[in-house]
Design a protein that fits this description.
4 strands; Multidrug efflux transporter AcrB transmembrane fold; Alpha-Beta Plaits; alpha+beta
Amino acid sequence: MKLDVIKNARLYVSISTAVILAGIVAMVISFQQFGSPLRLGIDFTGGSSITLGLACDGANSCDKKIDISVVRQAIESKGFANSIIQSVEGKDLQGVSVRTAKLSTEDRERLRSSITESLKPYGEVDPKKSQIYEVGPAIGQQALGNGLLALAISFTGIGIFLAFRFQLDYASFAIVALFHDIFVTTGIFSILGLTLGVEIDSLFIVAMLTICGFSVNDTVVIYDRVRENVKLDGGANKFNDLVNASINQTLGRSMNTTLTSTLPLIAIFLFGGATLRFFSLALIIGFLSGVYSSIFNACIFLAWWRGRSSGSSSNPTLEAS
């Protein structure tokens, strides 16, 4: 059974539009509540960072691996929820690093004591391997600005590459598909921020850049097949039919690539710990959105545009009645 994308174009575009609009509504509400479209973590808003290392010498060899869940439970019981906890390991070094919202001197000491108490089963804390410092909001805003700049540069570079690789209309609709993937992912995370209190950190920007690369790669594969079929066809068939044929010829490859990419991410989401959970979730959402936009949005808009620019009868599924 072959997939007729052009015939059901209105349905596919409507699904994308509904998801994006829901995300935009969530981002507007989020902006009213938090001052930003997404709930920002301390990487962008600033906060306190406490790193405690164990004394791994003498009688204590630090051969017992620290259970992060034990540390998390201990500090959350003291009221320090939504903290980012990571293990710190290296040569003669084992400990934990905790980042949380900006704290007063009294709260920092209370948090340090709570972490120290949770680490006692693993060894004594070494003051020489421990540090406490503040991350200012200016540094956080600079990190956010650099992340957005990186996204803008990646979009520009991808657009220029595709314009030279294919044609301007191919490149334009590939960029539209990229915007689709970014809006879908950020919209869903905005909804999660409102409903579940999910915050984004610097890894979210990394996820966005990865999604851009994955999505445009899938679009390029399909566009390559469209261009090849157009050359081989020599004008015997309609462009819409060639687009449909190209999608079906590359559909197996797109599905297999997405499946093999998302399965490890699902494993990371389920078993990778709190630090990587939402990073992997962003990639899962973006990869699924990327394969959807490559197969449907990018190809549908290209077929629609070529139909209009060639002066032939336009695709009725995309025109108003």
